[in-house]
Amino acid sequence: MRNMSFCCASCVVACKVDERRILEGSISMIKLNGHVVKPTIFPDGTSQVWKQPLDEGNAGVVEWEFENEAEVFHVLQACHLARKYFGHVRLVVNYLPYGRQDKSVDNEKTFALRTLGLSLAAVGVSEIVTVDAHSQLLAEPGMKLKLTSIFPGERIVDVIAECGANMACYPDKGAFQRYSSIDMKSIVLEKARDQTTGVITGMDVVDGDVAEDDVVLIVDDICDGGASFIAAAKELKELADVTVHLYVSHGIFSKGLDVLREAGIERIFTYEKELAL
């Protein structure tokens, strides 16, 4: 699908794990060195990860296709088991959870990504490989982890070509800083948000402009309910008669796709695929 090299070829051969499979969302749940992890669940509701087929010639690679935090303890157990046999562990995860808890809501001490990082380091994880991590917290020296966050530049360029966009729209300054290395005309917006409720109260143009018949691709890393992108699409269409598409690396879409399409967004892309109409 894309030729994105994020790990040296010798590492891939030695680990006998194609990390691209999980980064593109094509494997399920949790794997240890390519073998699906199926925890034993005991009558008291506890679990144990054990009896995994292990090749002592391999490095320890745990693959995790995140769905919900109930999987976290199974991931920790799989990593702990891998450390026993291989000394160190690489964790490959398609979506790094908890990164969005970086808003200023007196949340510094309960930033769950920090808790996750410390827990992973404690069970032997030395490197985390993911796509477009929202937060760089795990790369801080005190976390004792190497964070490899794959920039989705090639995917975004593919999407631009596929939808015919001639302009990028960044819905906030953070998105602009993240993706502005993509060489194309752009418009930067800024949202006003009630920090206690998370509700977006407005959207303003910070830089750039649109013209009639422009094809605009909104670019960001995560879509949850989509309020930012709904507000951005409405603002763009008030400025001019434009076509609007959306790219996000990670699509949660907790409010569904219809709310985005009703706001005038025509095509919706993620790192893995285009979402069907």
Question: Top keywords for this entry?
Answer:
277 residues, alpha/beta, Rossmann fold, 2 domains, six-stranded mixed β-sheet, 14 strands, elongated, disordered N terminus
Structure characterization notes:
Mean pLDDT is 86; it is low at 1-28. α3 links the parallel β5 and β6 (89-93). The radius of gyration is 20 Å and the shape is elongated. The chain folds into two domains: 9-150, 3-Layer(aba) Sandwich (Rossmann fold); 153-269, Rossmann fold (3-Layer(aba) Sandwich). Helices cover 27% and strands 27% of the residues. The strands form three sheets. The chain has a six-stranded mixed β-sheet with strand order 2-1-5-6-7-8. It has a six-stranded mixed β-sheet with strand order 11-10-9-12-13-14, with helices on both faces. The chain has a two-stranded antiparallel sheet with strand order 3-4. α3 runs parallel beside α4 (112-122). It has helices at residues 9-15, 19-23, 72-86, 112-122, 153-163, 173-179, 227-239, 258-262; strands at residues 30-32, 35-36, 40-41, 47-48, 60-64, 89-93, 125-131, 146-150, 167-170, 186-193, 200-207, 215-223, 243-251, 265-269. With 277 residues, it is an alpha/beta fold. It contains eight helices and 14 strands.
List the helices and strands and how they pair.
Elements: H1 9-15, H2 19-23, E1 30-32, E2 35-36, E3 40-41, E4 47-48, E5 60-64, H3 72-86, E6 89-93, H4 112-122, E7 125-131, E8 146-150, H5 153-163, E9 167-170, H6 173-179, E10 186-193, E11 200-207, E12 215-223, H7 227-239, E13 243-251, H8 258-262, E14 265-269
Parallel strand pairs: 5-6, 6-7, 7-8, 9-10, 9-12, 12-13, 13-14
Antiparallel strand pairs: 1-2, 1-5, 3-4, 10-11
